[in-house]
User: Fold these one by one.
Assistant:
Number 1:
Amino acid sequence: YQLSYNRMFSRFTEEASQRVNTLHPHSPICQIDDQGRKILDFPPVFRGLNPKLEGRAEKIILCSNPQFSAEVCLWSAMLPDLIAESFTLRPLRPADASALARACQDPLITRYCLSVPLNYSEQTALDFIAYTRQAASSGHELVWGIDASGTLAGVVSLFNVTASTAEVGYWLAPASRGRGLMAQALGLVVGFALDPQGLGLDKLTWKALADNEASARVAAQVGFRDFSFLPQSQPGRPGPDGGSELLDMRAAKLTRAQWAEQGFPA
């Protein structure tokens, strides 16, 4: 676990170097004063960034080359590759659009992931991929693709991110289910979110439809506790008349203290 994070953080500057040629290479993030000191110049991309995340981005940027753009450094700092033995969590890219569209047409995903649009197309996927990059730059939603030997196996996300909390979301493509992959992937994201060397958040929350037993098992496996039942608390998909049924949900939480007490499950 710690080795994975050490490797991940050592790659931040390298990742920014690889991306700088395609992302605003002429927008400097800092200048050198007459005494040779680096002076940060925060452009508009920082406006609205969560305070805790902004502090973390600043540390990453200070270690970067002055010619790197703020967006490049923010994207690398907020959404780094998270490396496990059998898969890598990485930002989604346009080449994933076809696999993403196929997966999001799966009946179980459309049944349980209410935020996934119906009639999902490759253009829908491309629009979503573009959105994930903007969301990562602002620090309010982080979306990783699960890359298992070059195959997009699923998605894990942190959304509704604040300076101290976030909610987790995840799904797996049909061919990747039943191997324990999601628990490993979610555990890696949980560690990144709660570890002070990562995002340093204080609490994560989980919520799913009450009959989504698979999602609840994964959440419990990585340490979520205090499960509760929330009757008729989530509007479903609109029906033919435009109205929607209120659905039952289950919720749980995982604080940094609970995570530590359980031995940092992953």
Number 2:
Amino acid sequence: MGEQPQKVPERQVVSFRKKVSPEPGGEATKSDRPLIRKPLTGRRRSKMPSPTSDLLPLEKRPSLPPRPASNEQPDVVQAVIAEKVSSEILLSRFLSGIIDLGLAGLGGVFCAFLASRIVGVPYYSADVLGLVILSAILLFFINSVFFLVLLAKTPGMMWTDLRLVEDERDHPTSGAVLLRTLLFLPLAASVVGLVWALFDDQRRCWHDQLSGTRVVADSGN
């Protein structure tokens, strides 16, 4: 008996052709039915954190320190205004003024000496004396404006540990320094402007009050 050939199973062919809807009046076969993809229910959607979930309640939030006002005065000026300035600062101011005037006087004498040697005028004449006074006043003005604007203290204030401040700031402005220096010489010549510091709680002279400045002890900052 001859062997019968084995029957090879037919392979199922998957077609990727576009499904065509049946004609009207016909029934759609199983292969013609549209495929419906069911949503995945096994996965869990990650819950997005709420932007306000990590915020603390208002009563538990740390309170920030109050912001100082723009017109608030510095601590150095506030400390000076709050308490009465000791009268000992007047002695330091007197010594610093003597040093500054002495430096200006020495500079005036040196300038007058050079002028008398160049021009050939006798050193003890009235013209040379007037040149000494004029040179000393000019040097005192330049010395005061330069050092007070740059460092808020003159060489005499550096020696006696003093500094100049303004009523609303720790470092004086150029306008306040210029006004104070211009008022110093005429008010100092009247003597009354300087003696007024004995009766003022902040130990301010007239040129200090009119320019809105005060002399305080230098803390070294």
